[in-house]
Amino acid sequence: MNEVYLLLGSNEGNRLNWMQNALEQIGKLCGPVILTSSVYQTSAWGLEAQPDFLNVVLLIHTTLTPSGLLSITQSIEASMGRQRDIKWGQRSLDIDILYYGHQIVSLSDLQVPHPYISTRRFTLIPLCEIAPSFLHPTLQKTSIQLLDECSDPLEVQKFSGPLI
Questions:
Q1: Options 52, 84, 96, 120, the catalytic residue
Q2: Closest Cα partner for 63 from 15, 29, 114?
């Protein structure tokens, strides 16, 4: 069984509903959800002229390969109306694979650890809630250390408790 950390995000429509539905689909199609962080709200990152995002980090156990997991998470996104027209644009649902155990994956369509973990507070704050001492396999720093060093200026506010 592989321990995988996923980041879910939404800034379109009923954001909590999209993420709750995704959590249920991930549990059915990818593997059991072991932990969830609280839900956090932040301004959009990258392309800023859009609604605020809600984000949550999940720990799941899966037997899927990294590529298999990517395929299923992308099909979950698509089933919930995700459009990939504009990079960093508004979306009903986004599912990012942050870590796949301590593996390093470098494929044309998948980079694990996620290449932006260390630069995004909206990822690090919920990650620190459920995995503060997880060691980034290439940077060799814990989630807490990465957050302490993160220069992202966007404010991240707790929105609610876990989705489960």
A1: 96
A2: 29
Q: Which residues pair with 157 in a beta bridge?
A: 41
As beta bridge partners, residue 58 has 6, 36
Contact by Cβ (8 Å): 31, 63: yes
Closest CA to 122 of 6, 5, 7: 7
- pTM of the model as a whole: 0.93
Active site residue 120: no
Of 15, 94, 120, 152, the active-site residue reads: 94
Is 82 labeled as catalytic in the residue annotation?
yes
Whether residue 152 lies in the annotated active site: no
Task: Show contacts of 73-76: CB within 8 Å, 24+ apart.
Answer: 73/6, 73/26, 73/30, 73/97, 76/22, 76/25, 76/26, 76/29
Whether residue 160 is predicted with pLDDT greater than 90 in this model: the reply is no
Kindly name the residue from 15, 82, 120, 121 that is annotated as catalytic: 82
Say whether pLDDT at 96 is over 80: yes
Domain residue ranges of the chain, discontinuous segments joined by +: 2-160
Q: Which helix (H) or strand (E) holds 95?
A: strand 94-100
Fold of 2-160: Alpha-Beta Plaits (3.30.70)
Distance of CA 162 to the CA centre of its chain: 14
